[in-house]
Each structure stands twice: as structure tokens, then as C-alpha cells.
TrEMBL record:
PANTHER family the record matches: DIGUANYLATE CYCLASE DGCM-RELATED (PTHR45138:SF9), REGULATORY COMPONENTS OF SENSORY TRANSDUCTION SYSTEM (PTHR45138)
Keyword ATP-binding assigned: no
Signal sequence interval, chain numbering: 1-21
Name of the featured protein: diguanylate cyclase
UniProt entry tagged with the keyword Ribosomal protein: no
PROSITE patterns: GGDEF
Domain GGDEF, first and last residues per copy: 495-628
Organism encoding this protein: Grimontia kaedaensis
Length: 668
């Protein structure tokens, strides 16, 4: 009996010791996880090292299920931050298998599925991820946890961004921000805000983007969250580049590089060094460019994204050019150009390879290939510039439509806006799938239709870029291009061209007396007169607030004077109505001159503007032309010298309004 009690006591002592050791291991495991959590977004490299130690030593022991799930959640998050999607997928799948049968781990399960979705976005599978996120969002409503909802919407925003659906991405992020603000998680709010700032950079919403990014950067800096600082700095550098401030962009990239070096982040170091080298090449600092480019050589094999690989190849080829190693440049560039022949759309650096090849051929005195390659470059670059201009206009329109939709529906939440946009996107997808089905039957017809659609889009945006938004007439940019064509015809067949410049008399008084909406009606009414009465080949444009310029092909000066007199009479006969119902009329003064093939648009404008000014000085509502005889030029000069101070100020005022109009037209 005594021996039995002794054995029992010994067993209890051993069991208690083993239990105590197990508790200590669990506590140590949990403590390490807490440490990883605290540095997850600050030093992800160190966080990965701590998790690796856990895997080697303590993870083999039986740990509580919640801690194991938490471990895999943190591991998948770190792998994502370090741009390792394959490892993130493995970790997320393991965590999902562990958590899927425990109802108490529902929130962790959703977060794990989100990490899996983020990893697939990095692998280019965002279309599949979006369908899964919709199901996840519907299921997560049972949790009633706004932080989980915010995380799901954040990932939706990332997926739409990867698809270049920036408007839907912004709506998803705004909806995510709404959900996050109902929690006490300031870190989540700032993560979403910084992502929103990056989207606004892409949508050319520069002022709002700058405000959000500055605020997020200060938040992460105060909390020493270096990795998030790095991501925000990269968006700030992109913002500076888009605004044309290369000096500021260079400064932002250099600061981001310092953070990446502290973090030991090789992937971001490679990309940032490339961006700095590219900016230095553009600024002509080739010596510094070569130094930064050298830093990328050891990191090249880690990169998988085509954009950065193409930039690396472009910079390496330029380095060979600078060293006058032309054959090496050709050897590098030729297979790259061949390999990208089947790509539907090229990056700028891929197009620039044609220019590098042309310069290299020229350096080797192979002028024929240099010329042919340069022609290829010009054709591709022209197409690229046109597409880029259309993309920029479309993105600005996206931002405008979003703000308009929200402003018109103040009672709607951003979640409603997101659902509206997604519904529209789904309708577009259904329509696209229908087109694909038809394409299988009549592929040739659909290809033709697609080509026509693309052409119409370019024509539409080209028309927007070349017309005045108020009157629908052409603008100064289009006028300049048409003048070049007319001058070519003048040089080839000697056909005459004349120019009219007219200005509505006392237009400022109309605006001041009746209001700007009535003034706009006056301008649109005169524009309609031009559209209906001018010949098909005549070019009419609005070049100032109340100024219009006309180019008249195949017209001698005498014909142009008759046309001007006819237009002057018709304008004076137009009747306009004030907002109170009172009728009034306006008049216009004209300057008419013949165009010489050697003159630029500025020269022509200067000549005809002087004639218009003379018409104003001689009483307005009249036509002055360069062909009119002046019996006493000295008397005319004396009269001009004696012009009243009020008239001079009037002319100065017209010039200022014209300048203001051109600035407004340019920035619209």
C-alpha cells in the first residue's frame, strides 16, 4: 500500500512538471506572437524571422488551436508584406483548414480567407478573388464586426485597383473607411486612408491625395511603423511625378530607399533604385544614374513584375549607349523588341527601347536600320501618347462621376455607391460575355466592330480635346493644326487663305448688367450663327472669352471682307432675352487680313488683332481689313497715340480675359 502511494505521488509530480512545462511553452509561444504582432507593419523582415524560429522550435509542440490559427494569420500577413504570394497562399490555406470547424474562430477564418485573396491578387487572379469576396462579405454580416467588414472591403478595393477599375476601387475604399470609423482601430483607419490616397493619385485627385498621404505618413511615423511609411512614401513620390515635380519625386524616392534599406526589403530596394535611376537619366545626371542602377543588379532575379523588368532593361540599354558600347545595346534590345511584338499594350519604357536601338544603329553608322527603327518608335509612341491621354481623361471623368453621384445622393452611403457601381460593372461584364459568344460565331465582324468602337472613342476624346465646351466650336489648339494644313496647301497650289478675328462689343457690360448666364447665351447664339452660315471648309474657333477667329480657305481678302460684313450684319440682327424677359441686341467688331504661308498662328493673330483694335477705336460694329487704304498714315499714328486711357485699359482688359480663358481651357 505504501509503495502504491509512493508511485502515485511520483506520477503526480511528473504530470505536474510536464503540465507546467507545457504551460510555459504555450505562454512563450503566445508572448512571441504578441511580439510579432507589435512589429508586423514596422519591421516585417524581423517578424518573419521570429515566426521562423517558432516554426523550428515550438510549433512542433501541441499548441492551442487559437494560437496556431493566429500564427498562420500572422505568417500569411508577413509573406504578403514581403511580396511572397506563394508562401502566403500556403500559410493561409493551412490556417483555414485549422479554423474552419471551430465556430469561435469565425473572425480569424474570414481574415485568413482575406489573406488568401490578397495573395491571389498579387498573382494576378483578381477576377476570381472578387467573386469570393462577395460571398465572404455576405457571410460576415452574421458576425456584426465592422472591422472584419472594413478589411474585406479594403481587399475589394485592392482587387479593383489591380483591374484598373479605379472608380469602383475608390468606392470600395470609401465604404471600408466608413465601416472602420465605427471601430476603435486607428491603425485600420489609416491603412485604408493611405490606400485611398494611392487611388486618388491614379485618378488625378492630387489635392485630396496629398492631404490623405501626408496625414497617414505622420500617423505611421509617430508609431514607428516603418513598412507603412515606405508604402506611403512611394505613393507620395508617384504623386510628385504626376504633378511634374521631378525634384520632389526624387527626394521622396530617396527617403523611401532609406526606409527600405533599414527594413532590409530587397524587393522594394530594387524598384526604388530603378525609379531613382530613371529620374536621374531624365535630368541628365548619368553618373549618379549608373550608381543607382548598379545597386539593382544583385536584386534583379527577385523581380517578377513586367513593368519593373522593362524599366531595368531600358536603363541597362541606356547605360551601354552612354558608354558608347553600341553593339552591346543592340544585343540587349533586339530580343526584347522581338519578344514584345505580340503584347497588346506596351509600357513607355518598352517603347523607348526602339529609340535606344535607333541610337545604337546610328552610333554604328547603320543609318538605314537607325531610320527604320526610329519610324517604328514614332508610330508606337504616337499611339501610346493618344492612349495615355484618353486614359487620363477617363480617370478624371471617373473621379468627377463619383463625386457627382455622391453629391446627387446625399442620403446614400458609400456602400450604396459601391453597389451601384458594381451593378453597372456586372452589366458591362454580361454585355462583354455576350459579345464574346457572338464573336465565336462571327469573329471577323466582331473584330471590325471593336476596331470601329476604339476609333470612335479616340475620335470622341479627340473632339473633346479640340473643342470649346461652352460653344461647341473648335479651340485654339485645333485652329493651329488646321492652319498648318492650309499653309501646306498654300505652298503647293497657291490657294489663298484669309483670317477674321471678331470681338463682341461691350461684352463685359452684358455680363455685368444681365449676368454671366445671359452672356453665355450670347456666345452660344453667335456660335450657332457661325455653324449655320459658314462654308463647310471654313474653320471657326473660340480663342478668348468673347473672341472668335475664322480661317477662310480659298478666299481672297475682298471675299473675306464681304463675309465679315455679312456676319457683322447678322450678329447685329440677333435678338437675345434677359432673365426678366427683356430683349436686347449686341454688335461685333471685325479685323480681316490675308494669311501668308510663312506666318505662324501667333503672327497672324498679332496682325489681325491690331485691325480689330482699330475697328474698336473707330467706333465698333465695323470691319477693318489690311487691304483698306489709309490716306494719311501719319494722321492714323497720331490718332492711335492720342487714344484715350480708358480705351487702353479696355484693350488690356480684353487681353487679360483672353489669357484667363486660355488658362481655363488648357487646364480643363
Amino acid at each position: 500500500m505504501q509503495k502504491t502511494l509512493k508511485n502515485l505521488f511520483l506520477f503526480l509530480v511528473i504530470f505536474a512538471g510536464a503540465a507546467h512545462a507545457s504551460v510555459e511553452k504555450t505562454q512563450s509561444f503566445e508572448k512571441t506572437l504578441n511580439g510579432v504582432q507589435s512589429i508586423l507593419y514596422s519591421v516585417p523582415i524581423k517578424a518573419r524571422a521570429l515566426l521562423s524560429e517558432l516554426e523550428k522550435v515550438e510549433l512542433k509542440q501541441n499548441q492551442p488551436l487559437p494560437l496556431l490559427v493566429r500564427y498562420y494569420l500572422q505568417k500569411s500577413t508577413v509573406d504578403l508584406l514581403l511580396n511572397d504570394p506563394e508562401s502566403a497562399v500556403t500559410a493561409a490555406n493551412t490556417g483555414i483548414e485549422l479554423a474552419k470547424n471551430d465556430p469561435l474562430l469565425k473572425a480569424d477564418l474570414y481574415l485568413m480567407q482575406l489573406r488568401l485573396g490578397q495573395a491571389r491578387i498579387l498573382k494576378g487572379e483578381e477576377a476570381l478573388v472578387l467573386d469570393q469576396l462577395d460571398k465572404l462579405l455576405a457571410e460576415s454580416k452574421t458576425l456584426n464586426d465592422p472591422s472584419v467588414t472594413a478589411e474585406i472591403l479594403l481587399v475589394k478595393g485592392e482587387a479593383y485597383k489591380a483591374q484598373n477599375d479605379y472608380d469602383v476601387s475608390m468606392a470600395a475604399l470609401m465604404s471600408s473607411l466608413e465601416a472602420a470609423k465605427t471601430t476603435q482601430d486607428a491603425l485600420l483607419v489609416e491603412r485604408i486612408a493611405s490606400s485611398l490616397g494611392g487611388i486618388l493619385v491614379q485618378l488625378n485627385g492630387f489635392d485630396k491625395a496629398s492631404l490623405l498621404l501626408d496625414q497617414s505618413y505622420q500617423f505611421f511615423r509617430e508609431r514607428k511603423m516603418s513598412f507603412n511609411q515606405l508604402l506611403v512614401k512611394l505613393d507620395m513620390a508617384e504623386l510628385a511625378k504626376k504633378q511634374g515635380d521631378k525634384k520632389q519625386a526624387l527626394l521622396e524616392y530617396k527617403q523611401a530607399l532609406q526606409i527600405a534599406q533599414v527594413l532590409g526589403d530587397g524587393s522594394h530596394r530594387f524598384r526604388i533604385n530603378l525609379q531613382i535611376a530613371d529620374l536621374l537619366l531624365q535630368s541628365g545626371d548619368t553618373k549618379s544614374m549608373a550608381r543607382y542602377l548598379k545597386q539593382t543588379d544583385a536584386l534583379r532575379e527577385r523581380e517578377t513584375i513586367r513593368y519593373y523588368i522593362s524599366k531595368y532593361n531600358y536603363l541597362k540599354a541606356n547605360k551601354s549607349l552612354l558608354n558608347e558600347n553600341y553593339q552591346a545595346a543592340i544585343d540587349l534590345v533586339t530580343p526584347l523588341i522581338t519578344g514584345q511584338a505580340d503584347l497588346s499594350r506596351l509600357y513607355r519604357t518598352e517603347i523607348e527601347l526602339y529609340l535606344v536601338a535607333s541610337k545604337a544603329h546610328f552610333g554604328l553608322e547603320d543609318y538605314k536600320n537607325a531610320y527604320l527603327t526610329l519610324l517604328d518608335y514614332q508610330n508606337r509612341f504616337n499611339n501610346f501618347s493618344a492612349d495615355e491621354q484618353v486614359d487620363n481623361l477617363e480617370r478624371q471623368q471617373m473621379l468627377f462621376n463619383l463625386e457627382k453621384l455622391k453629391a446627387e445622393n446625399q442620403h446614400l452611403s458609400w456602400n450604396n455607391v459601391l453597389q451601384t457601381l458594381e451593378l453597372k460593372t456586372n452589366e458591362d461584364k454580361v454585355e462583354y460575355l455576350n459579345v464574346l459568344v457572338v464573336a465565336g460565331v462571327v469573329a471577323t465582324v466582331i473584330a471590325t466592330m471593336a476596331a470601329l468602337w476604339i476609333n470612335r472613342r479616340r475620335v470622341r476624346w479627340g473632339k473633346i480635346a479640340n473643342t470649346d465646351s461652352l460653344t461647341g466650336l473648335y479651340n485654339r489648339r485645333y485652329l493651329s493644326t488646321q492652319l498648318d494644313k492650309l499653309k501646306t496647301e498654300m505652298e503647293s497650289d497657291g490657294s489663298p487663305v484669309s483670317c477674321l478675328l471678331l470681338d463682341v462689343d461691350h461684352f463685359k457690360k452684358v455680363n455685368d448688367t444681365y449676368g454671366h448666364p445671359v452672356g453665355d447665351k450670347v456666345l452660344t447664339g453667335i456660335a450657332e450663327l457661325f455653324k449655320n452660315d459658314l462654308r463647310r471648309n471654313d474653320v471657326c474657333s473660340r480663342v478668348g472669352g468673347e473672341e472668335f477667329m475664322l480661317l477662310l480657305p480659298n478666299s481672297q481678302l475682298e471675299q473675306a471682307q464681304l463675309i465679315a460684313e455679312d456676319l457683322r450684319t447678322r450678329i447685329s440682327e440677333l435678338s437675345f432675352t434677359t432673365e426678366q424677359g427683356d430683349e436686347f441686341n449686341v454688335t461685333a467688331s471685325f479685323g480681316v487680313t490675308a494669311v501668308d504661308a510663312s506666318q505662324s498662328l501667333s503672327d497672324i493673330y498679332s496682325d489681325v488683332d491690331k485691325l480689330l483694335y482699330r475697328a474698336k477705336q473707330n467706333g465698333r460694329n465695323r470691319v477693318e481689313s489690311s487691304g483698306q487704304n489709309n490716306t494719311d498714315s501719319n494722321a492714323e499714328q497720331t490718332a492711335e497715340t492720342a487714344a484715350s486711357l480708358a480705351d487702353k485699359f479696355s484693350r488690356l482688359g480684353r487681353g487679360m480675359r483672353r489669357l484667363k480663358f486660355r488658362f481655363a481651357q488648357h487646364f480643363s
